[in-house]
Design a protein that fits this description.
0% strand; mainly alpha
Length: 468
């Protein structure tokens, strides 16, 4: 039997075994059957025998076909509800922003400029790679596209200038550049609400539990002060803990200058893309005050991008990654919403009372954040992590935490999604790309992941004492 067949069989067997187990007292049989399929979907997302979007789509389709949500009309309305979700459209639109950076060449130009002016030393190169990611982060919700698509093609060529390859002196400079790149993209993914698509998914699930939609600015007021020191510290800390043997890099600025010459002068479309991204960012920050929704801003900017020729309509239609995420997240939103509709979340809330009632609010917050963070070792997908755990953690938070602590707790919970990606070679989308570059062994990655993961988690906990 092939590996793919085994991977497909495991979620099916999980669903079948759970299906025929009697429902626990207090939970309807319909809800139990829904949970069986939901857990099968989560397991499918972890082992991913077929594309993740297909797993979610299949799960929603099966639940609708079995009528677990009610009659035929109720079931299909539920199954398609995620496609009308404004956050899903915001994520889709932000993918178009990433496409604009790539199509115009602006993303590559930014990275090369950073290397040209900051790359005279290896530590400077680390900061150049880090700032290349930071400049793009607010506008690119896929850290895979940002780090893997924009930063990686530039950064991975730097070690070659110094004859540093995976099989020839990887520690000379290649290993350092690789770790700085992945570590800083994890930090920037937590820094901005729009820097990581699962951030937006988590916020949508949180809204369903609390009734409050976290804004870009509310997120920024907590996460930027926490993440900026981490961002500044990460290249230096890597330099100390995992030092490169090559300390100077006079060739790198010259190489970047030559690459910039090949790009030519800044084009009108690059200026336009930069201007549109700035407009979007300003409206994401201040749009609430003038009555403009974040998703409205995003789809309007995408319309202008297409009409002005920054990207073409064919470019938009051909962006498979965006449509893949659109279908994937839309089905996961529906599945997470279904947990509440069938009564599973209420059941969990009622049964957690005896176990958690004795903890103080601060102790409970720290315990929930730690559990949420450490469980990421079992997930190869941040999105699967969000879908499986955020609804459950929110049930507990809403029931046991003081109302005045909920907003800050939820931002710290969702804000930890980016930084937790550093802990394993599969912890987030860009991890396999940088691990696959071959400069860092698996053993070394796990060790560095534990060190940096602990530091990043402690900063999240620091946020509890500063903001709650």
């Amino acid at each position: 039997m092939s590996k793919k067949s085994i991977g497909l069989l495991i979620p099916v067997l999980v669903a079948l075994v759970l299906w025929f187990i009697p429902a626990p007292e207090g939970l309807s049989q319909n809800a139990w059957h829904f949970l069986a399929i939901f857990l099968a979907v989560v397991i499918g997302l972890i082992i991913e025998p077929v594309p993740a979007a297909l797993i979610g789509f299949s799960g929603v389709s099966l639940i609708a076909a079995l009528g677990l949500m009610g009659n035929a009309k109720v079931s299909i309305n539920w199954a398609l509800s995620g496609f009308g979700n404004s956050v899903i459209w915001l994520i889709f639109a932000a993918f178009m922003f990433a496409l604009g950076y790539k199509k115009t060449g602006l993303g590559r130009r930014v990275s090369l400029i950073m290397v040209k002016y900051m790359g005279k030393s290896t530590l400077g190169l680390g900061y150049a790679v880090a700032f290349s990611d930071l400049v793009l982060a607010p506008f690119m919700p896929s850290n895979t596209a940002r780090s893997g698509g924009s930063v990686y093609p530039v950064a991975i060529n730097i070690p070659h200038i110094f004859n540093s390859y995976p099989d020839n002196e990887p520690r000379k400079i290649g290993a350092y550049i690789s770790w700085v790149a992945i570590a800083t993209t994890c930090v920037t993914s937590s820094m901005f609400l729009t820097a990581l698509a699962p951030n937006l998914l988590a916020v949508d699930l949180i809204t369903k539990s609390t009734g409050h939609a976290i804004t870009w600015m509310e997120w920024a007021k907590i996460m930027i002060p926490l993440m900026v020191p981490l961002f500044i510290l990460t290249p230096w800390l890597t330099y100390v803990i995992y030092p490169p043997t090559q300390k100077k890099s006079p060739e790198a600025p010259a190489w970047a200058a030559e690459e910039l010459k090949k790009l030519g002068g800044i084009t009108f479309k690059e200026y336009l893309m930069a201007g549109l991204a700035t407009v979007a960012l300003v409206l994401w920050i201040f749009g609430k005050e003038v009555g403009i929704d974040a998703t409205t801003t995003a789809i309007c900017v995408v319309s202008v991008m297409v009409l002005s020729g920054v990207i073409s309509w064919d470019d938009l239609l051909g962006e498979k990654a965006a449509f893949n995420v659109f279908i994937w997240f839309a089905t996961l939103v529906a599945l997470a919403d279904g947990l509440k509709k069938v009564g599973i979340l209420d059941y969990i809330g009622q049964n957690s009372e005896a176990m958690l009632a004795g903890l103080s609010p601060t102790a409970l917050i720290i315990a929930l954040l730690f559990l949420f963070y450490i469980l990421h070792y079992f997930f190869a997908s941040t999105t699967a992590h969000v879908t499986a755990l955020v609804p459950l953690f929110m049930v507990i938070a809403v029931q046991f935490l003081p109302a005045e602590s909920i907003l800050t707790f939820t931002i710290l919970l969702a804000g930890s999604l980016g930084v937790m990606g550093i802990i394993t070679p599969y912890g987030c989308g860009p991890c396999p790309i940088w691990y696959g570059a071959g400069y860092i062994s698996q053993a070394k990655w796990w060790a560095l992941g534990a060190i940096f993961g602990l530091l990043y988690f402690l900063v999240i906990i620091l946020g509890v004492f500063i903001f709650i």
